[in-house]
Amino acid sequence: MGCSSCGTSVDGKPRGCKSNGSCTTGGCEKLSVFDWLSNMTLPTGENHFNIYEVRFKNGRKHFYRNLENLTISMGDVVAVEANPGHDVGVVSLMGELVKVQMKKRSVGFDDESIKKIYRKASQKDIDVWQQSREKELETQTRGREIISRLDLKMKLSDVEYQGDGSKATFYYTADSRVDFRQLIKDLAAAFSIRVEMKQVGSRQEAARLGGIGSCGRELCCSTWLTDFRKVTTTAARYQQLSLNPLKLAGQCGKLKCCLNYELDTYLDALDEFPKQETVLKTEKGEAVFVKMDIFKRLLWYMYKENSVKWFKLTLDQVHEIINLNKNKELASSLEDYESEIEEDVVVDFENVVGQDSLTRFDAPKKRRKGNQKGRAKNTKVEANHQPNNLVKENKTRRNNRRKRRNNNRNGNKES
Fold it and tell me: Which option is the CATH number for 135-200: 2.60.40.3080, 3.30.300.20, 3.30.2010.10, 3.40.50.12780?
């Protein structure tokens, strides 16, 4: 939060944003712009650019002309032309940077669709604007009830009232075409306003509602991302990511925009790698590509005849083999190249305590020595208390065995 009213109070509790993103400090709303040309003076004879950029709810921005030559600065609340009536917004950009934004959005300086700024918003305009903003949540709730009663296959994601409260724009998402003629009649009768239905995509819906991504941070589309670039599964293939839709899809159900962030770095690194269809010809046979590690510059190959063993080669070794094959020479076996790779010793975390066991602070278990001794004594006592007849029989059997052994030995000597 950039403004002091949204910060933490003395008792440590957050105050919360009471302006709901419409404050003029420039720190709460998304897509705020820093005018780095504001301190620079214009050349002599140059007039100020009379087109301003005005921001509305959820980062919606449009361009308006200042035909009345009003003294307007960034952060001022202005009343602008709308159809019908007027709308209220906040000036987000002015000066020469507006030209850059218009060129970026392909809007001409002489475009007739650019409407004009009426005046700086008076206190009455601001009061009506705030009252209209407070009705948006209730209107959205009742609008969803009407949609469910009409059994329409659409989802109402947001409602935006015009500054004068005469019109409301209903933003919705739908997978197919929806006939909402009856819906418009019911909404106009329920709220006594002019109704405009506007369909948005799933990405635009996520940008308007916001949320937390799988990375633990706020969604890029709802904070700083101003345009949606096309994202395809090719970006995931170049980065060697698993083509799992559950991991690659964002909250909008589409592919994550962050797949394009590192794509250029991967493409630059892949320029040095050979094509995956290239076959390496060695003395032991032909080898085909298996996988690669782009930033470690490592590749894995295997023989066509033996697909069990994979051989790790560096990028320089692969280029060396390819150059030998271009000169119609066979390279040595992949085992020889793999043995030449020197593996770096990875310094792992060293435990200064010298103990890795999680139970090192637990009390050691005592051995039951007394019970073992007691068991041994019991066995001895039981042996001593055997009947005398059994003891005599055991002795006679032992003596007979000894006599037989001796007789056998003597017999073998005499023979």
Answer: 3.30.300.20
